[in-house]
């Protein structure tokens, strides 16, 4: 498939406009992913508070990501009609307001329902951010910009786990959720203040034919499958590793277990770096190397050794975010029209991986403990590696960009 992208006048690396875009979307990534994962570090405590098993408690993550996945395609279509920035800004505020109600939930069903509502509200930023970048940023700078946005999402995931995980021993799970939500609201306000208006987007009617065209493209289908499999593995590992470390033979304190989210710092660095490497050396080799690194990191977590688990989780997290950064960026480059919908299909698959794959991972843990969980995730990553190895990213762009 050959794609020509008209790049004249778009924001380039080093320009003030691109710096402002990077800061705004970094803040958006922080806000969105703090809200998305704010319950993950608290799952063992919420299991005890609401008297539910691990697989059921994991629904507080899976329902949110699943609802986001269901909403993401309709929301992307709204952005084709009403504009990228408007949809992102409204979505970010609605999600922050829904989050303020989480600490008040009296029961597990109430919290599960509110988390699903929050997932729908959260859909606007990830549904549109990639398309906004593809519209506004010069193709030769897109990989780096996408990497910085994904770095913001990874740091948001870190704070979404680290803040409540650190606060719970001091103030309980309700105050832990409240602190995380207020921090997310602050990032949302920063996003509102910084985001430049679209210069190259032209409103139009969302075309269902564009969705079908994206699904007929074998390259896009492989990218969608890769996102699904990667996210299924990622959510499984971070949902369930806390249970393992709290139980025998480790019996680690909750505050220490909450620090596993620090590994997201490696993800932030890897996402930004992988985007730049893909711009210079091509998407497929960088993406395949990232998937292989993710699998290698997971393998290191299988022995009952805290140092090996820590090292493996760092490599696993860095590989995951590097792969996500490259795969998401290539979707925006490959689609010649309906970019928001193309990115939304990728993110639909990505978050469905969290919802479906993460729930299946909970069952793997209940039946096979960490060994069964590791085998399950390694199989997912093997299929992802095969999909990437057969991926054709033959994209020709105006400007210095290699596919």
From TrEMBL:
InterPro entries: MFS (IPR011701), MFS_dom (IPR020846), MFS_trans_sf (IPR036259). Residues 17-402 form the Major facilitator superfamily (MFS) profile domain. Its main location: membrane. Pfam families: MFS_1. It is a multi-pass membrane protein. The keyword Transmembrane helix applies. The chain crosses the membrane at residues 21-43, 55-75, 87-104, 175-195, 223-243, 255-274, 286-302, 308-333, 345-363, 375-395. SUPFAM superfamilies: MFS general substrate transporter. It is found in: Cell membrane. Keywords: Cell membrane, Membrane, Transmembrane, Transmembrane helix, Transport. PROSITE patterns: MFS. PANTHER family: BLL2771 PROTEIN, INNER MEMBRANE TRANSPORT PROTEIN YNFM. Belongs to the major facilitator superfamily. This is MFS transporter.
